[in-house]
Specification:
Rossmann fold; 10 helices
Length: 265
Amino acid sequence: MDENNNCFALVTGASRGLGKAIAFELAKKKKNLILVSLPGEGLKSYCTSLESYGIKVVSYEADLCNKEAIFALINWIRGSFKVNILINNIGLGGTHEFEKSSIDLIHQSIHLNITVMAMITHQLLPLLKQHKSSYILNVSSIASFCPIGYKAIYSASKVFIYYFTKSLAQELKNSKVHMSTVFPGPMKTNTDSIKRLEKHGFIGKMGLEPTEKVAQIAINKLFKRKPIIIIGKTNYALRILLSILPDWIRLPLVTNSVRKELEIE
């Protein structure tokens, strides 16, 4: 029997946005799913709809801001499932003036964007190594291409994700675990993101893609073992542009673009 029939893909932040779209793409590829989200976001009904693809779909609702909740999730998975795909999608974005941000928001942002990803990856690596081939997809952002004022923690955390993935991939290069980083641009994932994007200037809207397209490209390139996944020619061009512009041009350029988001808060 094909081992994939008994293996599962774990997707965090799976009830909406990119995580939800990635779950859909994996379902189309007949991958069994463990979907994780906050309680009360309609995850169970979404899982039921994905079962129409003839796969097993399991939901797990928890607030991963709590470290004990992370270990509870890990222990549950270890005791019940074989996992050969890990999608670290959970994260917290937004635009904030750092000085006016609460300590709770700062801690939550760092925890969700960095700590949760690192902990889940660390704890599931032994399971992933048990299979003929396994995959880890970590979700960064084009915000990692350049420091951005009013997104100080967000952009820095997305750089961490990129460097973490590249570094760990070196440690795993002789294993059967493949790692990829995807760098989505702006996406219209929910009402809040739409309001924020409407305030952006031209630079802030560059590379705008449908969430479904981002998910499709990300999953296809993950299984092709592409280590770096950038969505669309515009985002490729933006990466090159931001790499050659001096800081005195690029930093004010991107910061002024996103600062307009503060007007709606």
